[in-house]
Amino acid sequence: MYFVFDVETVPDFEFVRSVITEPEKENEALLLQASEELAHNKSGFLPPMYHRIVSWVGLWIENNGVPKQKVSWNGEDEKEGLVTLFDALSTYKDFGLIHHNGRGFDLPLVTYRAMKHGLQMPSRMNHREIRYRYSNHNVDLLDEFSNYGASSWPKLKHLGYLINIPFKQTGEGNEVLTMYNEGKLEEIEHYCYEDVMATYIVWLHLKYTVGDISKELFDNLNERAMNKLKEIQDTDH
């Protein structure tokens, strides 16, 4: 079994204020200062340690790509969200992971936040099959398409454009904080779900392209996934 997943976050302003030099600034100015001090850029997007989770969505699929079950969470209580995630990941013993930049962001984030809240992750998350960068059990699309950094890393949205699929209709990543400030947690989860379906569809195309699944199976799964993506995008939140 594989767990296709994505996590949505907002800055942990309380933590950020504890580690930068001018913590009294307003949130927007604080992010710019924190970016320079902690990430050495001016984008306003911080490294994984300085975020907190407000939603996650996962899709269980069989090894051949057949979808089994969606699980998800959104809310203010990050510890509750992590416990719910770890419970979901305990459903199967030897699961694998599929994601887009999960190695660079989502997985370190989950480790940091579990440590912050004094939680123990499922032991599988520290297994060599998950930790080893070249493992077939932990599939990061960034690594798969860039040949593990030998080429440039593709954006998920651009991968969608490449195969003529319109991703990111619900919102963009930099809009999550705005959505959160407006109390739109359900919308954030909805956005996260679209990301998961996008990741799943790109993975299906990759598996077919490299010859790991047959055309008949690919056509069937891709049609179902595209119908689900359209349903997600057409849902009015």
Automatic annotation (TrEMBL):
Example of a GO MF term: nucleic acid binding
Domain Predicted 3'-5' exonuclease PolB-like span(s) in chain numbering: 44-237
InterPro entries reported in the protein's UniProt record: 3'-5'_exonuclease_PolB-like (IPR019288), RNaseH-like_sf (IPR012337), RNaseH_sf (IPR036397)
Name of the protein: Predicted 3'-5' exonuclease PolB-like domain-containing protein
Organism: Halalkalibaculum roseum
